[in-house]
Amino acid sequence: MLKMQEIHDLIKLIDESSIDEFAYETNGTKVSLKKHKGEVISTEPINPPIPQVELPKKAETKTEENESPVNQEDGQSDFDYEIVSPMVGTFYAAPSPDKDNYVQLGDKVKPDTVVSIIEAMKLFNEIEAEVSGEIVEILAEDGELVEYGQPLYRVKA
Length: 157
Prior knowledge:
Elements: H1 4-16, E1 21-26, E2 29-36, E3 39-42, E4 81-84, E5 89-92, E6 108-109, E7 114-120, E8 123-128, E9 133-138, E10 145-146, E11 151-156
Antiparallel strand pairs: 1-2, 2-3, 4-11, 5-7, 5-10, 6-9, 7-8, 9-11
C-alpha cells in the first residue's frame, strides 16, 4: 500500500516531467495519473480509497489598479512576452544572497540570458529568458514560492 507522502512525491515527479500518463499497480493497489492542463488527476478508482490530489492551476498575476499591463491610450500591452515558471519551487533573483540580481528593470536580455533560479527538491534550476528584449516588469519576489506557469517577468521585444 502506498503512503500519502509517496503519492505526493509521485505527483510532483510526474508534474515536473514530460510524462503525460502514469499507471502503477502493486498488492491490489492501483494508481493511475494523467496530466491535463497543468493538473494531475486520478483517472481510475483506487483501492483502498486515496484522496484525489489536484495540482495548482496556472497562477493569476496580480496587478494593482494603477499598474495595468495595458496601455490605456492605444489598448496595446506594455509587454510582448511573459517568462513563466516551468515548475513549482522557490524563486531566487540572484545566484547567492551576496551577489547582484541576474536582471533588473530595463535590462536587455537574449534567449540564453539567465534571469533567475528556481529551487525545487534541493535542485537549483536556471531560468533563461527564451526571448530577446527588455525586462519591463518583475512579478516575483526573491525567496517567494512560485507555481508552475506563474509569470515571473514581462519582456518587451
